[in-house]
């Protein structure tokens, strides 16, 4: 295998690993539900290992039971890339490409660093992709659901970067500079406090909307239950007619 091909293969693996590490817990959990069957296609459900011959033979017997000979080549192709495992890899690849494109649009310097690192140090590339998704993933998701909230998150990130920079400068500054830098830091902290309040207000509103929706669902279910209780006598009478009618239709001869 040439060095170029080896690098490309390693980078593809990097994309998959980094995307998986930064997946939201529910998507990963959804894929975990399918993982045992995908990862152990040649094992019995009871845990007893079987070789390739016995596994293919079992499929053959099932096909013969239905009056059809198994098409071994097509089934192998499906198992290797066209099944759920192949679809999962495609989704991971797509998520990675979408994130890199988004990063290039919103934070081009960060994207450029990743691009330069991809071929030079694939191992570090894996780590950095995971870290960038952890850092910017919430903003990317918010842009599709609430652009206003995404702007608040971006502003918060800028303020945190400014804060950290001022802290580094204060550590190395002389007495006169420290006083000025500390005043800037105080102003930055004050601005970030306001941003934190905005973030909490957004989350409160979202939670309130969910609660109102649940309250409506509860009210609807309660109304259905009350209606059902009130119609008990009629429901029983209708059911009795159905049961008696079914009995009368039976042919005992």
What key phrases describe this protein's structure?
single chain; 253 residues; mainly alpha; 2 domains; 11 helices; 85% helix; 0% strand
Global outline: elongated
Q: In angstroms, what is the radius of gyration?
A: 30 Å
What's the helix count? 11
Uncertain residue segments: 20-70
Q: Order of helices and strands, N to C?
A: HHHHHHHHHHH
What portion of residues belong to β-strands?
under 5%
Number of domains: 2
Q: End-to-end distance, in Å?
A: 78 Å
Bin the helical content.
Answer: over 70%
Q: How would you state the average pLDDT, rounded?
A: 75
Main β-sheet, in a few words? none
Structure summary, number of beta strands: 0
Structural class: mainly alpha
Layout of helices and strands, plus pairs?
Blueprint: H1 3-21, H2 25-32, H3 35-39, H4 52-65, H5 72-82, H6 84-106, H7 108-120, H8 122-145, H9 147-172, H10 175-230, H11 232-248
Helix pairs in contact: 1-6, 1-8, 5-6, 6-7, 7-8, 8-9, 9-10
Q: What is the gist of this entry?
A:
This protein has 11 helices and no strands. It is mostly helical. The protein is elongated, with a radius of gyration of 30 Å.
